[in-house]
Design goal:
- This protein has 400 residues and is an alpha+beta fold.
- It has two domains: 142 residues, Roll (Nuclear Transport Factor 2, Chain: A); 225 residues, Thrombin, subunit H (Beta Barrel), CATH 2.40.10.120.
- The longest helix is centred in the last third of the chain and has 19 residues.
- The protein is elongated and about 70 Å long.
Length: 400
């Protein structure tokens, strides 16, 4: 359990379980298309349903729409049983985040990040056949509230997608509607009535809005044909509107439970070399932390265990260490302070945010902001190890 600021209870996770997806495009049955390896790799396609076209002089530019509405686009990070990762959603109200089902399906923990705010959420409705879901935020978010269009766009209409491709910062891409009423197959499941667009879509965009020139949402990014250029698909917004209306007053959808869920894999959680120590120590310490966090992120708890000092390992057990960090996903690791009084010893304070299953978190938390002061020691061969961790400036963690 992550209840004390000791080494075995501090982990960073960023791994996704592998999954595969086949998307058979309309008229090209059996062709392998994109949908995913991990959920983070799933492509989110936004479909727009432009309402009435305004005069060109009154229509805002997409750059104006993006500036006004980007605050309502939510980065969704999950810890899950088979599919986990980074996806996208968007606000309909301060506590309602709509997305596609595969972003939050089988999630043990759902984290919502919006314009500098972070909270957790619970799934209150999911429709796997249509690939739609509604998440209720545990604390209100203050971003822009989107409106769902009630009809389809026209082929040739300009659209734009906003999301977090491959886990990157928020990104805006433009394209056109290239087809309607497409029938495709994703992960063996048929999807009907899909919107096709040539807007650039990548893994992590899933669940994000596909906007028309009037700023309304015409679709939710859902899948991409990886065997072609410029062929992506979105769920029509009208479908989402129907489901959301039915889910608004629903009770919480039961979260998944499994023995060893993992968080999203977005590459190594690289820790920057700390200032305040020698150059050689800075790079050795950064390498140790990166190995440690990446081991836990990928579920390679042995690799993380090996970064602990021999003394630390002698005072604990690998089994308790791995059990304590199972389900953890830690991100946004930053160096807060560092000092070196001896050639083979240094103090490095880190801040980071953790997600974990409630039974693994301190006080039953599923999201915590940590500040810990690590004691680092160097062996005779020059390798740096984590020897201890204590609260930094009197505080170890606070709930998100």
């Amino acid at each position: 359990m992550r209840s004390a600021p000791i080494i075995g209870a501090i982990a960073v996770a960023a791994c996704t379980a592998a999954c595969s997806a086949q998307v058979a495009g309309y008229g090209v049955a059996g062709q392998r298309m994109a949908a995913a390896t991990p959920r983070t790799n799933r492509v989110v396609t936004v479909t727009a349903t432009p309402t009435a076209a305004a005069s060109s002089s009154a229509t805002p530019s997409f750059s104006q729409i993006y500036a006004k509405q980007r605050s309502g686009v939510v980065r969704i990070e999950t810890v899950g049983c088979s599919d986990s990762g980074v996806g996208t959603g968007f606000l309909l109200s301060p506590t309602e985040v709509v997305t596609v089902a595969h972003v939050v399906d089988q999630a043990v923990v759902v984290s919502l990040k919006d314009a500098g705010q972070r909270t957790t959420g619970t799934v209150v409705g999911i429709d796997r056949a249509r690939d739609l879901a509604l998440v209720r935020a545990d604390a209100p978010l203050t971003g822009y509230h989107f409106k769902l269009a009630d009809r389809l766009p026209a082929v040739g209409d300009d659209v734009a997608a906003i999301g977090f491709p491959v886990g990157d910062p928020i990104t805006f891409t433009q394209g056109t509607i290239s087809g309607l009423h497409r029938h495709i197959v994703v992960d063996g499941s048929p999807r009907r009535g899909m919107i096709e667009t040539d807007a650039a879509i990548n893994p992590g965009n899933s669940g994000g809005p596909l906007l028309g020139e009037d700023g309304a949402v015409y679709g939710l990014v859902d899948a991409k044909n990886v065997g072609a250029e410029g062929i992506a698909f979105a769920v029509p917004a009208a479908q989402a509107s129907f489901d959301v209306g039915a889910w608004r007053n629903a009770s919480t959808y039961p979260p998944d439970n499994c023995s060893d869920p993992l968080g999203p894999s977005q590459g190594t959680e690289t820790v920057a070399p700390p200032a305040g120590v020698s150059r050689s120590a800075a790079y050795g310490i950064a390498r140790a932390f990166t190995t440690y966090f990446d081991g836990i992120n990928s579920g390679d708890y042995q690799a993380a265990w090996d970064v602990l000092s021999p003394q630390r390992r002698a005072n604990s057990s690998y089994e308790s260490f791995a059990d304590g960090d199972a389900t953890s996903y830690d991100t946004d690791v930053v160096v807060l302070a560092a000092s070196q009084t001896y050639a083979d010893r240094a103090e490095v304070a880190l801040g980071f945010t953790s997600l974990q299953r409630s039974d693994k978190g301190p006080d039953g938390d599923i999201c915590d902001d940590w500040t810990l002061d690590y004691t680092m020691v160097r062996s005779a061969d020059g390798t740096w190890y984590i020897d201890n961790a204590e609260p930094f400036q009197g505080s170890s963690h606070t709930a998100c």
